[in-house]
Amino acid sequence: MSWFRRPSNTPLWRDEFSVYTADERYVNRRQFTKFLTLTSFGMVAGNLWILAKSALRRPPSFPRVAVATLEEIPVGGVKVFNYPSAEDPCILVRTTADSYVAYSQKCTHLSCAVYYEKEQNRLECPCHQGFFSIADGSVLQGPPRRPLPRVELQKDGDRLVAIRTEGASA
Amino acid sequence: MFGMEFYVDPSRCIGCQSCLKACEECDTHRGVSMINFDFVDREQTIATAAYVCWHCDNPTCAQVCPADAIKKYEDGIVGSSLKPRCIACSNCVLACPFGIPKLVPQYEQMMKCDMCYDRTSVGKRPMCATVCPSQALAYVTPETIASARREKPVNTFWFGNQKITTKVYMMAPADTAEIAIDVADYVWEGDHELVPQTF
Questions:
Q1: Contact at 8 Å (CB) between A113 and A105?
Q2: Rounded to two decimals, what is the model's pTM?
Q3: CA distance to partner chain B, nearest, from residue A147 (Å)
Q4: Are B112 and B101 in contact, with CB atoms under 8 Å apart?
């Protein structure tokens, strides 16, 4: 059986209503039932696989990494670091004298690097003008649909320590 | 499938009609025999011939069916007409060069031998071949027929210019490669007109 008809001298009706069951182009009831049954088995197998994966899944562990000292960056200043691995660029912003926020630097639209726009006090992705709130990383405007993953920070003496990333897939 | 082929040898037929009765017993078409049974020339001889559908490679009956009711399956069997489709037009009855399909008026449907599809598709022999005492209808392997018979199985037929190759074999004299039947030889002419036959 083929879905597309090659040029041929056989009239179309003879091709469509072939004498030979092997050449029939229309799906008959038995084939359709077979398709439904096999697809259902496929769905069951797929769901069991997902179930097994989620049952065996463990929560991701994050390392504690000192990313900056408290006085290293001025108010309104920015520092770029990598967390949790060297391939995950993040951006740390000192918004006021004693508040620090950090987000993944990859825009959730197409992974361009976002930067801190000081005048508007927001994070901007220059590729397609996507804007993220500095307060919680949520989307203000533009094509991204998901908020920036936030990096949780902890003060440890005079150092800022990244402890985990929220909203990022492990 | 299963390495068995059907061989018809009318010269072995003794006219017992067991095949007709066995065929009638089948649950799929109870009471109607699908065997074609002929008295060859009743006035001159007691010879009879029982034969089944030849299951042509390019079945004429299916080619002429306007309702797409006759199908050739992947294992080479040409099925009987499909009941929901057959319109009892008799095209196949008239077109088949072997005269196999029969219109059954009470069902308004053409019915013919499907080589006991319910049996042969699972490896059993057709009913007629199991009961034939002289094995004029035989369903065996090619090796068996080659070792047991003098005749040679032939499955190429000429009807005028129409060449037909079949799944079922006719046992023919050993020097025969093809069987040719010129229909013009059987058309009446001259003084000795054929008597209209009544069945």
A1: yes
A2: 0.60
A3: 59
A4: yes
